[in-house]
Write a structure and sequence with these properties.
Elements lengths: L40 E8 L27 E4 L1 H4 L8 E5 L11 E8 L8 E4 H6 L6 H7 L2 E8 L8 E4 L8 E7 L7 E6 L6 E6 L2 E5 L9 E8 L5 E11 L8 E3 L5
Length: 265
């Protein structure tokens, strides 16, 4: 990953279903959740990728090109290790704004963690080019891009992607004995999500990294359909909501396929 700064540069998330439970871009509106009382923290922000891009095409959270489309629409961030938290921070939503430069709009913009910035400090935000442009005044995006780095105010907010969670089958899967799946578009502000598979006691489920999980049945064929149980967890030890995604992974599951639930947190 390349961090753009003044010395380095000169000019420097999905198909919609027709069903009623599809992911709708208008639902990505964290302002619906009361965040006004949450304090702002201070950090530094740079940007990477192209000036109008979504950052990395294959970020550490394994979201791939879905971040380019609604509801995320390229508003992503690669973050330092204190926020990335070895992948547990993937999918978290943050409001960010800059206020100490004339090109800054001072208006908050919501970004989604989709990547890690290993060379960044712990609370650093390396924004996508599009996200960095979004914190600038209209017509002054190039000024901010040329600057390369700004002081940033940020705070964690609750994600509101809509009423559907997406389960995407990864390319490292090996049907019919091994599967990797990414859990995407999860609402709420949980520190991380626990995942279990209902009624398959001999199935081994483990987190591969980021938002991706592996499913392995001792070398035997997997036994879909699978009902996934997701539980919200918080850093203070409390447990949030638990929901089930009934038969979300079908019998005829395939690499690259996207399966949508009818519920979300």
């Amino acid at each position: 990953m390349k961090v753009h700064t003044f010395t380095l540069v000169v000019l420097c998330s999905m198909l919609l279903s027709t069903t009623c439970y599809c992911i709708n871009p208008k639902f990505f509106n964290p302002s619906k959740v009361p965040n006004d009382e949450k304090p702002w923290d201070q950090a530094q922000a740079t940007w990477y990728g192209t000036p109008d891009g979504a950052g990395s095409e294959s970020g550490a959270c394994s979201y791939g090109k879905t971040v380019e489309s609604p509801p995320i629409s390229k508003l992503t961030a690669a973050v330092g290790h204190y926020i990335f938290r070895q992948g547990y921070g993937c999918g978290a939503c943050y409001e960010v704004k800059c206020t100490d430069n004339a090109a800054c709009s001072e208006k908050p913009v919501t970004v989604v963690v989709s990547d890690e910035c290993p060379s960044c400090s712990g609370y650093h935000f390396n924004l996508s080019g599009a996200a960095f442009a979004s914190i600038a005044n209209p017509g002054q995006q190039d000024i901010l891009h040329k600057l390369g780095q700004v002081n940033l105010q940020y705070r964690r907010v609750s994600c509101s992607f809509g009423n559907s969670i997406a389960v995407r089958i990864g390319e490292n899967s090996r049907p019919p004995t091994y599967m990797e799946a990414s859990i995407e578009y999860v609402n709420g502000d949980a520190e991380y999500i626990d995942l279990e598979v209902r009624d398959q006691s001999f199935l081994t489920v483990s987190r591969v990294g980021g938002a991706t999980w592996s499913f392995f049945f001792a070398g035997y064929n997997l036994q879909p359909p699978m009902t996934l149980t997701l539980t919200q967890r918080y850093s203070n030890g409390t447990k949030g909501k638990t929901i089930q995604l009934p038969n979300i992974i079908p019998v005829d599951w395939k690499i690259g396929q996207l399966y949508q639930s009818k519920t979300n947190f």
